[in-house]
Design brief:
Layout: E1 3-11, E2 21-23, E3 26-28, H1 31-44, E4 48-53, H2 61-64, H3 69-78, E5 82-84, H4 94-103, E6 108-109, E7 113-115, E8 120-121, E9 126-131, E10 134-141, E11 156-158, H5 162-175, E12 183-188, H6 192-201, E13 208-212, E14 224-226, E15 229-232, E16 240-249, E17 254-264, H7 274-291, E18 294-297, E19 302-303, H8 312-325, E20 329-333, E21 341-342, E22 345-347, H9 348-354, E23 361-367, H10 368-378, E24 392-394, E25 398-403, E26 408-414, E27 417-418, E28 424-430, H11 431-434, H12 437-441, H13 445-449, E29 455-458, H14 461-471, E30 483-486
């Protein structure tokens, strides 16, 4: 048996997490130390590959202020070998993404974004990397369920689900079989549980060895193994990097043995990269002047450590929108709140990194029965896996008790009164979520519009929130039993 060794390093969902942080008096994360670790690995071993499984963008003013241009500069210096798209790569629009791709000095692959009229792919579907006489095939996969942002761009299409994605993987693998591919890696951005489903339906003869995933921000201790395919993910941000030490059987074109670990990126394990620090410093110096302004005061630091539960920080955002827009209830998308904690003093930078998505909010009229139908759909079994469903922070006055075992709402009250099936309630919803109403709430546009006109409540969520925080100082908050999950 002829074998060769490869080190496969991987990140996902970096979300503009470029700066070093202090955790327990220890410096951790940041692309300076991440770059230092990559350089160290590359100097120790020529057979090193670094791959990123989507969502380089969003989450930092260093990214949003320059619409991703600064991120591409930073990534060019980080020098990944191959990258696939995440859902947030489309946040600035597909046309702008194609512009950013031209700036990238590394391959960006995606097999299933295409122009509807001509079925023309927007990106190269795969990338074959040749290293030490071996050929490594990378295929980029994302599904329509994840990239909901592109639904506003009518000429852009994508695959519907993992079944279609699996067929595309098969087509690509079959097309390159004659090239003697030594290892095949899927770079996906669909969530850890969906990666398992995808692996289960892949034909073993296609030769997929590894799935490096993203989207669900999953921290793992060891890879999952489904259908003889290793599945990994490296959490979120730059606090850690996934590392595979692989032995490849070049006769049988498969992984002979492997070792995987999550390597912490901190001052004890990673040297700093002075070139990266100079680049970051030049970008940050320009943003600091604009974003140092204090925009809010909380009574204490509010947390949002888990986006699939009700949180204090999420509740403040939901309440601010409810009060400002005079609706009965506001559904604040949990994923819109990007920081795990904020306050008590909040600068414009803090706020922008916490809530980077500006847009409209709509007022829709729902019957009590439709409201309950939406809540039951939001709280379906998949929601508690913390993967690919949408979850919402409820505004004050709501009291919901949900039974997981019975899949029932045991209580559904607003301001102390049971929600009346026949009564009409005005509900505020952010633009992104309104644009995906059937997928996120299980409600059709026709049944919602039958209750009355859909109105634009604000053209800028950000302006609405900043105005509210400016007028309401020293905000404190309690969950007040808005959502109780039993059984």
């Amino acid at each position: 048996m002829n074998t060769k060794q490869i080190t496969l390093l991987h990140s996902n969902d970096m979300h503009g997490d470029f700066l070093v942080d202090t955790v327990d008096e220890k410096l951790t994360g940041g692309v300076s130390m991440l770059s230092g670790y990559l350089t160290q690995c590359r100097n120790e071993d020529p057979n090193v590959i670094y791959a990123i499984a989507g969502d380089m963008f969003r989450g930092s003013v260093l990214d949003s202020e320059y619409l991703g241009l600064s991120t591409i500069q930073i990534m060019n210096l980080l020098a990944p070998d191959v990258v696939t798209l995440g859902n947030h790569e489309t946040d600035y629009g597909v046309a702008h993404l194609l512009f950013l791709e031209k700036m990238a000095q590394f391959p960006i692959i995606n097999a299933n974004l295409y122009i509807r009229q001509t079925d023309t792919r927007l990106f190269e579907p795969c990338y074959i990397m040749e290293i030490d006489g071996m050929k490594i095939l990378f295929i980029g996969i994302i599904t329509d369920e994840v990239i909901s942002q592109t639904k506003g761009e009518r000429i852009i299409g994508s695959f519907i689900g993992i079944e279609d994605a699996a067929k595309e993987v098969g087509k690509i693998c079959n097309a390159y079989n004659s090239l003697d591919i030594d290892m095949t890696v899927l770079l996906t951005h669909i969530g850890f549980e969906e990666d398992k489903k995808l692996a289960a339906i892949l034909d073993p003869d296609w030769g997929v060895d590894i799935i490096v995933g993203g989207h669900s921000h999953t921290f793992i201790e060891q890879p999952a193994l489904v259908n003889d395919i290793l599945i990994v993910q490296a959490g979120t941000g730059t606090d850690q990097i996934g590392r595979f030490d692989l032995v490849i059987d070049t006769d049988e074109n498969q992984v002979a043995s492997w070792k995987w670990s999550a390597v912490p990126i901190n001052e004890f394990t990673c040297p700093r990269d002075p070139r990266m620090e100079e680049l970051i410093g030049s970008i940050k110096a320009k943003t600091d002047l604009k974003y140092a302004k204090v925009v809010a005061n909380f009574d204490y630091e509010l947390e949002h450590h888990n986006r699939w539960i009700q949180t204090e920080l999420g509740g403040v955002f939901a309440d601010a929108m409810k009060d400002s827009l005079a609706v009965d209830l506001f559904f604040m998308g949990s994923g819109s709140v990007r920081k795990r904690h904020m306050g008590p003093i909040v600068t414009l930078q803090d706020f922008t990194e916490c809530y980077p998505y500006d847009g409209k909010s709509y007022g829709v009229k729902l019957t009590g029965a439709q409201l309950k139908k939406a809540l039951l759909f939001i709280y379906r079994d998949e929601a508690w896996l913390g993967d690919h469903t949408e979850f919402y922070q409820l505004s004050k006055g709501m009291h919901v008790i949900y039974s997981k075992s019975r899949h029932e709402l045991l209580k559904c009250e607003l301001d102390g009164e049971e929600i009346d099936d026949g009564k009409i309630y005005t509900v505020g919803i952010q633009e992104f979520h309104y644009n995906n109403l059937p997928e996120f709430f299980n409600l059709t546009y026709d049944e919602v519009k039958a209750n009355g006109e859909v109105t634009v409540l604000t053209t800028s969520d950000v302006q609405t929130l900043l105005e509210y925080f400016d007028k309401n100082k020293h905000l404190g908050f309690g969950l007040e039993g808005r959502l109780e999950v039993v059984d």
